Amino acid sequence: MGKHSIEIVAGDIVRMEVDAIVNAANSSLLGGGGVDGAIHRAAGPRLLEECRALGGCPTGEAKITRGYDLPARYVIHTVGPIWHGGDQGEEKLLANCYRNSLHLALEKNVKTIAFPSISTGAYRFPIEEAARIAVQEVRNFLAAHPEMRVSLVCFSENDLAQYRHALRETENH
Ligand code: APR
Question: Partner of 57 at 20 to 30 A CA spacing, among 23, 27, 85, 101?
């Protein structure tokens, strides 16, 4: 991880060998497409069984399950905001996704955690702003919990560039 305890990587989050991976879920927690679909496929049907018992999750909040057939021990399911133009509190809700997922990880003594780019796919949140929010929230959290290691997993070259830019931008503050 070098001097940062934030690592920006390209790849498929289901293969990350970390204590917990974060899922960009929807409020039903009953699976979907994108990274949600990939995580459920890789974890196997027991993941959906456990999710069924959770009774859904409000936007901006997070719930934790086991990882089953994934290398990761846990999956932290968080529900990102759908982008409606930016005047419906989307930025705050996205920040809450990162913060609540990290606090849940802390409670479970998770040391290494990987996030996908929450809300920037089907939920259409602009990647530049989402990357800035993600990096800012992770930095704030790591300032208080330097023992944790956070990977931000990008699924495209463009996302990778945006996250790396956001990391550099927040270096000086
Ligand atoms: N590994 C890492 N990142 C991935 C993977 C993967 N295997 N698959 C997709 N992604 C990336 C996408 O490229 C995007 O950058 O995850 C990011 C989030 O995109 P979505 O998965 O579409 O999630 P989101 O925009 O938050 O929309 C959530 O989509 O899949 C449904 O059930 C989900 O209704 C919910 C909605």
Answer: 85
